[in-house]
Amino acid sequence: MKRANTVNNEVELEQKKKALKPISEEELKQCNMIDLIEMLTERLKDCRFDKRTLELCQPMLDKLAARFRISDTQAMMLAVGVEHPSGLDVNDVATFFSCSNVRASSYFRQCRALEKAGIMCKRNMLGEDNYYITEAADDALQTDREFVAIWDKKYTADEFVDRVQNVFSIMEDQELDYVDGVEMLKRYFRSNTHLTCVSEINELHLPPLEFIVLVLMCHSVVNDRVTSTPFLSIYNMTKGRDYHKFHKEIYEGCNLLQERGLVEFKADDGMAIADQLQITDKVKNEVLAEYDIEEVFNPRTKNGLLNYEDLAEKPLFYNDREAKQVSRLHELITEEKYKEVCDRMKKAGMRTGVTCLFYGAPGTGKTETVYQLARQTGRYIMEVNVDKIKDKFVGESEKNMRSVFETYRKKVRSMKNAPILLFNEADAIFSKRITNVDHSVDQMNNAIQNIILQEMEKFEGIMIATTNLTTNLDKAFERRFFYKIKFDNPSAEAKSRIWQSMIPELTDAQALQLAKTYDFSGGQIENVSRKQKVNAIINDCDFCFTDIIAYCDEERIGTTTHHRVGF
Length: 567
Fold this sequence. Notes:
Structural class: alpha/beta
Radius of gyration: 31 Å
Largest sheet: 5 strands, parallel
Distance between the termini: 71 Å
């Protein structure tokens, strides 16, 4: 039976080959790149590199090769690659052409040349090389335009950061090894010498390891807004290649990056931190001159905390329910009452941690309420930036989150008044956990959430989390928050007071009219107020209520008036 099937397949292939007709010059002239590849793959499928089939395909291969400036054989692999959007390996080539793996291997090698041309990119999947059509090549095919490799393009300073991030992300997913990662970065650096950061680093003529370490550290400052890079991040990124030599040189102070004054150990209160490096002032001022990084190194903090004395007093207006809850929380965290409550809770054998969740729509005053509570009760704020916690490399995110709670415990022990641990806009970490984990990102998010849940069980101090989530909050977190305050959009009466506090020129009637007409949050009302003030400054004009109406209509752009359908 198997022999019969084989014979039938052979007969079908022969009939298919005989049925193929050459493409006319007029047809070839009119077809676009996608049409061309469809006709090519239809003819090449199961062809076993038959001579007649290849001759029939030659005009199409010539046109595709000319468009991408590659050889005919490379054009053939490009067409096959388009047919395999999830990745092309040597087995796919053998299956597509119905040939042996040995024969397929000789053609599969052409993918390497396509990778160097920027038409394909290589990723390692379970130890096997897989090649994908690049975004730039796919765009050229879909739009039938001239192909330009992504590293041959000229990027702005911000766009260049995104390209570097893309390389590191692929390396992190172990789809691009260290050597290929360095080569890809250097291609970008060769084509973007108009950028200060690129020209400065190019002029250093660094060896591959030192080159990629410096790029990683600069990228961490600009993109991740962190001042230091752990040795573990460097190890993970390089996959350990040449790492031990680098590590030894750094500790002995004789690495090229140190000798040129580019990197140094991170210091805390004058003491060097042995497992973290940071860029020097020379790199900040010369290499990263075109990026705004001053606030990364000089934030508005004291000992790593936001100083309550630097917070401006700001009136807040709540609905009755919110006002009562916020007032109750304010009373609890005043130092005298807080200590009394903690002492009594300890004696009763109960947990003393005050954990609060502020949730509701954006612009309803959640974050500002935290700031005002801190200012009124004399408490510093240790604000956690969730995006900075999430590291590119496996295991670092979990380590960072544990470090947050350990650092907070040290602050509580060393300070007179316990600071507030603030997880601001933390939707990503308090949403429902993913049950069927398929991606490393989902696994990381679940791990971070589990760490927070464990820490909340033994938490001592004051923790406040703000989130825009109203329905997707994980139940495990919901149970662990002692106070939960929902921030609704203010009532008409509260909104009218907000309007008048921000635009004092409004009469009571005008403020109430705005409050009833526009369902705005406090943040949106502030936007309108700012526009009014900017207009008054620029045009040197007096208050005009008509202008306020116009600004309100601009603020609610994208909304539509819904009319009832039927009777």
